[in-house]
Design goal:
The protein is an all-beta fold and about 60 residues long. It has one domain. About 0% of the residues lie in helices and about 60% in strands. The chain contains no helices and 7 strands. It has a 3-stranded antiparallel beta sheet with strand order 3-4-7, with no helix packed on it. A two-stranded antiparallel sheet has the order 1-2. A hairpin with a 2-residue loop joins strand 1 and strand 2. The two termini are about 25 Å apart. The mean pLDDT is about 95.
């Protein structure tokens, strides 16, 4: 996952994966950060933390 600040926008680039069932089984996950992760992006001297899940309906 790549996270950067470009022209005042937070830009997140994450690879799409083969859809796999979420833990609840209600959706299919297509991208995930795998929990909250500190990134290289910095705001007010502190690392931006991202928790990302992208999914599709079953």
């Amino acid at each position: 996952m790549k996270v950067e600040i470009v022209n005042g926008n937070l830009v997140i680039t994450i690879p799409i994966q083969i859809p796999s069932p979420s833990k609840s089984g209600k959706t299919l996950v297509v991208a995930t950060s795998g929990g909250n992760k500190a990134t290289a992006a910095v705001v007010d001297g502190k690392a931006v933390i991202i928790g990302l899940n992208a999914y599709i309906q079953r």
